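Posting this for the archive.
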Amino acid sequence: MSPAAALVLLDTNILVHLIRNDSVAQRLEADHQLTARRERPLVSEVTSGEIRALALKWGWGSGKVRVDASSGESLHP
């Protein structure tokens, strides 16, 4: 469990689970309350690019991942 005030940096593999909203994502949410944090989790530019590349490769529609230059990755499970 991470402290509520701690910044969290999400890596590509974690984002994939969150986007898929699978059992790992449910566990991450339960353990770290990612959606309830005051500070939004951070996503690096590299991870953002990797997610965009995976979205193209795996045929994810715009409903799965919306990349917004002003706010970073938005997850829509």
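The chain is about 45% helix and 15% strand. The two ends are 23 Å apart (CA to CA).
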